[in-house]
Amino acid sequence: MYSKRVTLDNATGLHVRPATLFMETASRFGSAIRVLKETQAADGKSAISLMLLEASRGTELTIEANGEDEIAAVEALVDLVETQFETRR
Amino acid sequence: VIVLEGVPLSPGIARGKAMIVRAIAAGLPSSREDGRPQQEQFRTARRRAEAELRSALDALAETAGAAREILHAHLILLSDPMLEMEVVLRIERDGIGASEALDLAAASLSGRFEVLADPAMQQRAADLRDICECIRRQLAGCSPIDRSEGADRIVCATDLSPAQVLRFARDRPLAFVLEQGTDTSHAAILVRALAVPAVIRVSGANAVVQDGDVLVVDGNRGHVFVHPDSDVVSPAGGRFSAEVDETDAQPAHTCDGVAIAVTASIAHSEDARRAIATGADGIGLLRTEMLFLLHDRVPSEDVQEAFYREICGIVGSRALTIRLLDLGADKQAPGLELPHETNPALGLRGIRLLFTRPELLMCQLRALLRATAGRRVRLLLPMVLDATDLARLREILNEAAVGMRSTSVEIGAMVETPAAALMADELAAAADFLSVGTNDLAQYVLAADRYSAQMASTYQPLHPAVLRLVRGVTAAAARHRTPVCVCGEAAADPRALPLFIGMGVTELSVPPPAVARVKAQVRRINMTAARALAEDVVSLPNAAAVAARIDAAREIIGADVLETRDAR
After folding, report:
1. Active site residues of B
2. Is the dihedral of CA B446, B452, B456, B457 positive or negative?
3. Which of B194, B234, B354, B381 is the most exposed place for a label (fewest CB within 10 A)?
4. Which residues, in sequence order, are bridge partners of residue B30?
5. In this predicted model, which residue has the larger pLDDT, B52 or B307?
6. How many C-beta atoms lie closer than 10 Å to residue A55's C-beta?
7. Is residue A22 flagged as an active site residue?
8. Which residues pair with B484 in a beta bridge?
9. How many angstroms away from the CA of A47 is the closest CA of chain B?
10. Which residues in chain A touch residue B454, judged by CB atoms under 8 angstroms apart?
11. How far apart are the C-alpha atoms of B396 and B383, rounded to whole Å?
């Protein structure tokens, strides 16, 4: 298992679009992915689950992955959060 | 005549018989009698709901951005693993049926969204209920095309949910009349995207209108006439008959005499009837996937033959082009057990799939040959890369034809991969005809997923890169005197079709309701002007410049008079 902590710094937190982008990125990896907020945990591949975390700007999250591509998965997701969900064209 | 007043939602005027639609959630049969495991029933229903949503998305115009976004959001929720987990958990833990488990899971999840303060999250609650309604309908065995719901009728209801509107995406009704509704709801956005006349907040509609009543709906002014006189004239002064029953069986020529065949793209026999009724010159594209999506296993040769035979009976002696099975990518079918691919749009689909499943291809070819014996038919190969695919198909076709009555079969290639467009010279030499699939070609040339909301502004079917390839195809085809058809949404787009005609395309395959409109526009097109325009646009730097160039030429390409009739 591999995990990293990251702080949400985009304006809307894990709102509809960021949660969808997170889910889409997470779904590209084979590893199981969880997102932890304090005592709550969400399935990184479920937009419903991510939105229900109600993670707003400034929230600290732990992204953890378990599987063959766990390091790449966590790094890609941390990068997504740190670039404030700005997807490249 | 009784006149009801409402608020116009979507422009246009229609006359037809009312169909009263009531809330459908209640009264659906339980699925528990079916012996299959409940989890499997849920997954099948969800897959069908997904296919239904995707075909609704396909039926929407590219310009319907807001409606497409709603459908994208629905598709994301539909395949969400948490929804699946909640349903399966209830089935396994509580021993209840799929329908009941789905209801409880939907109520629980949407309840959790509803308590959030953010209005966008409350909208997710509504979306969740909508997609669950779609799945529940599939569980109850209501397939999208068993009943041709709403086709040739005026749908009257108190209000409609987005899921209910979606039922009508394929069999477009003549109009919508709602007693309630708001013009900003998801349902309203979807209704507008269907581009049929609609009036909302019609007070008294429920009390006055009975099933089967003749109505005239004026979506421009917000009037509904109940029991109108046969020759009633609208308050706006236009005669209804000109706008209703649009049918045009006359062949279409440009104003300087170039013949253009306007055929229909269809998926089932109801479509075929509609196409012939509107005066289509034939069928330019019969998709055969629906047949596979609606059965729980791969349909037998006999089942397939009966399907093609019914279509042949409706089409009569007119031209008929049948596309071989184009499953894979976003379309999965029960019983095929297609491998999971990380990038299915670039994976095993179309003719690639058929070549790896010889029994599937042989079965379809034999069914087609049996059903079309004695008539002329054109077979279209999806996802072709080069002429090798055509040669290989011809060989297999000869094998399939052993011992059969002869059919006059022409073989054509779909030009939807960049490779096929670049190999057009060799393809045109080997094929009897070519058909440009604009939706997929644009997606592959621009490397932009046409189902992705994020790509909505990048996916531009009229990008010069796409147009240059199409022009290359028509030029190659002209050298070999091979006819070229264009299908896909751009074929019916009043702004795009003059470009194709200018490039030398001689057949446009469009949705049945667009046939008369497209013929009317073809007759206004001047070939010399269209050629000049087509030459111009391919040298422009980007899609915005193409759009501006088309705007400047609207009058000479006949797109000006038509735009007022198309709710955009």
Report:
1. 186, 487
2. negative
3. B234
4. none
5. B307
6. 22
7. no
8. B434
9. 7
10. 21, 87
11. 17
**Residue B264's pLDDT band (cuts 50, 70, 90):** very high
H-helix or E-strand containing A72?
Answer: helix A70-82
The answer to whether B343 contacts chain A (CB < 8 Å) is no
Report pLDDT digits (tens) over B29-41.
Answer: 454 545 578 888 8
pLDDT, one tens digit per residue, over B106-140 is: 999 999 998 887 777 888 888 888 888 888 878 87
Is B447 in CB contact (< 8 Å) with chain A?
A: no
Cβ separation B80–A47 shorter than 8 A: yes
Token representation of residue B52: 């239904």
Terminal alpha carbon distance of chain B: 31
* A38 residue type, one letter: E
The tokens describing B416, both together, are 């939807």
Q: Are B284 and B485 in contact (CB under 8 A)?
A: yes
pLDDT digits (tens, 9 = 90+) for B217-227: 888 778 888 87
For residue B107, the tally of other CB atoms under 10 A from its CB is: 14
Quick: pLDDT tens for B179-189.
887 766 677 77
CB burial string B313-352: b at 16+ within 10 A, e below: ebbeeebbbbbbbbbbbbbbbbebebeeeeebeeebbbbb
Q: Which residues pair with B115 in a beta bridge?
A: none
Judge contact between B524 and B289, C-beta under 8 A: no
Q: Which one from A4, A15, A37, A57 is the annotated catalytic residue?
A: A15
Mean predicted lDDT score pLDDT of chain B: 84
In contact, B358 and B347? CB cutoff 8 Å: no
User: Could you give the ipTM of this predicted complex?
Assistant: 0.90
In terms of pLDDT, which residue wins out, B448 or B56? B448
Report residue B61's pLDDT band, with 50, 70 and 90 as the boundaries. low
Q: Looking at B116-259, list the stretches that DSSP marks H as alpha helix, in order from N- to C-terminal side.
A: 119-139, 162-167, 186-193, 205-208, 240-243
pLDDT of residue B410 exceeding 70: yes
Question: In chain B, positions 501-520, which contact chain A (CB-CB < 8 Å)?
Answer: none
Q: Are B25 and B138 in contact (CB under 8 A)?
A: no
CB contact under 8 A, B81 and A51: no
